[in-house]
Specification:
Length: 225
């Protein structure tokens, strides 16, 4: 499992002898107490403890961890660790899309960041229906939903509650953008078609989760984006 916490990448993986420890700047074990000042560079926590992981997650949500690049928690029981992690959050399911018109991609600008259109699932709808509805509402376009790209997870705090947002992403082809405009009531300021150069620049002012979606999209589907 990969999850983004305050724009930092956290991975929960299966403990394996194939893990390349030389890739990391520091390797911790379950016996180590990991304080905020030790969260620097690329870190591996080998044979991690469940509470140890959640203590680090709390630090990542409250302390300055700007020097952290990546932290990987390796567990003997990886699935149990993922379940334990999820128990500490309220899960919200959302869906969105990479909308394409030729080689151009549709991006939205909200809260000072470039983003892809997405939104929360409503009761009674399928996740594919959520994805289509949200991108059409946020951008005032019509689309054809194609394949799933993948899922992303990121955390945030809302009303003092920890939230884990699971977002499903789909490739979509444009049907019509004749009435395209930003859904201002959702705080969207701009809706812009971007070519490869503009998209590369925009991703420098976007979220890591969005950059990871575009990386997957390019690898799976794009000949030139």
């Amino acid at each position: 499992m990969k999850v983004f916490i305050n724009e930092k990448t956290v991975k929960i993986v299966k403990l394996s002898p194939d893990i390349n420890e030389s890739f990391y700047d520091h390797v911790f074990t379950a016996d180590d107490v990991i304080e905020a000042d030790r969260l620097q560079g690329k870190l591996l926590v080998k044979d991690a403890g469940f509470d140890q992981m959640m203590n680090v997650v709390e630090l990542m949500s409250t302390a300055d961890v700007s020097a952290l690049a990546l932290i990987v928690f390796a567990f003997e029981k990886q699935k149990t660790a993922v379940a334990y992690f999820k128990e500490h959050f309220k899960l919200i399911v959302a869906a969105g899309g990479v909308i394409r018109k030729g080689n151009d991609i549709l991006m939205i600008y909200r809260n000072g960041m470039w983003d892809l259109p997405k939104g929360k699932a409503e009761k009674g709808e399928t996740i594919e229906e959520t994805a289509t509805r949200e991108v059409e509402e946020e951008c005032c376009v019509t689309v054809t939903l194609l394949d799933e790209i993948g899922k992303t997870y990121h955390t945030y705090t809302h009303r003092d509650k920890r939230v884990l947002k699971k977002t499903y992403w789909y490739v979509m082809d444009l049907k019509s953008d004749e009435l395209m405009r930003p859904q201002q009531e959702e705080g969207i300021e701009k809706v812009v078609w971007m070519d490869e150069a503009a998209l590369t620049e925009a991703l420098e002012k976007s979220y890591r989760s969005i950059a990871s979606v575009m990386k997957k999209y390019k690898k799976k589907y794009a000949k030139s984006v």
